[in-house]
Amino acid sequence: MLRVLSLSTLFPCPPRPGFGKFVANQMRGVSRLAEAGAEIDLTMINPIGLPPFPLSLRPPYRALATCPATSMLGGLTVHHPRFRLLPIIGGDSNPGRIARAVLPLARRLHAEAPFDLVDAQFFFPDGPAAMHIAAALGVPCTIKARGSDVHYWSTRPRALAQIRAAAQASAGMLSVSEALKRDMVALGLPEERITVHYTGLDRTLFRVTPRHQARASLPDLLGLTLPESAPLVVCPGALIAIKGQRFAIEALRDLPQAQLALAGTGADGGPLRKLAAQSGLAERVHFLGHISHDALPVLLSAADAVVLPSEREGLANVWIEALACGTPLVIPDIGGAREVVRSPTAGRIAARNGPAIAAALREVLAAPVPQGEVAACVSGFSWEANAEALVAFWQGVAGK
Fold first, then answer.
1. What is the model's pTM?
2. 129: helix, strand or coil
3. Using one digit for the tens of pLDDT, what is the confidence trace for 177-217?
4. Residue 269 domain-assigned (yes or no)
5. Neighbouring-strand partners of residue 144
6. Which of 63, 81, 222, 377 has the lowest tally of Cβ within 10 angstroms?
7. How distant, in Å, are the alpha carbons of 5, 249, 287 from that of 245?
8. What's the rounded Cα separation, in Å, for the pair 197 and 175?
9. Domain span at residue 76?
10. Angle at CA 119, nearest 5°, toward 115 and 120?
11. In sequence order, what are the beta bridge partners of 41?
């Protein structure tokens, strides 16, 4: 039996059930393998950061303070120890505070049934924290890199030093794409210890629904009514600057028939509405707000194209989800984009500006590909395959 203690600061908990859902999907896949007889026992720790009073009374911390010490995710027990969060000024020092908060729980669980390794689901702050915990327990440490946990934090010298130290101390690392692996090596992380581990896909949700059928359901499902012949472009993701929705709005100026639906919420909602109004596009830009996980596949299937002009990504789950619904992508040349858009069937790689995105969308809209052919581009993705690869990696590290 392989016993793994996994640490993830991005993970669902009762006050925020949608937070870090992609990590939860991966870990549920591991749990299903265990239920099917695989010799793997997974313990999940999701540290909850709370600031000192009176900041602790503000959203979202007030709600997070109500999180129980443990919760259940399917059949998986999740522990939620608290650590002291210092907003804005304390990011670089989070790993140490996480490790100190988690260690008493980790020692107790390890004494009850020893772990074979400690795993971190993000490189920062989880990776350095897991390094300290693993050293205290005397077991190996593994770390997964996903994108911004490397790209953003490596720009901060104190964080980068901790990333490098954790990489050197690790027994193995995972990267969500070959491109991210190259970026990790460029930072001085040991290439021979990095394995590419692609994301998964919930095939019960993200599958082809005929576009006309999906589109016909939008008025009742999302309150979205479109002109009959207008192409629909969907831009999913939090409304924050690094996601680049403003470039999608700018592209709409050169696509006079198209409608743009922004699926998400965030601090950029107001400025984006203002940009749409100032550009004379308010009637063609639809702000849908938060879209449930059940409604998202319908919206993606209804779209003629999905555009996500992010500043940085590792390999975005929504890229794979859109393709599985039969909808081509228009995305920048970032992260693992070229590992996903391998042919025109999957969409186009476009520079991160309005005119380039508009030109790519015109090509996609002018030559529609059958949804089944688009979906075939991601035929190898599933949470089952993802979980099996993860467990095999852990077994290799632990020598089991």
1. 0.91
2. helix
3. 999 999 999 999 999 999 999 999 999 999 999 999 999 99
4. yes
5. 174
6. 63
7. 38, 6, 11
8. 6
9. 2-200+382-398
10. 150
11. 3
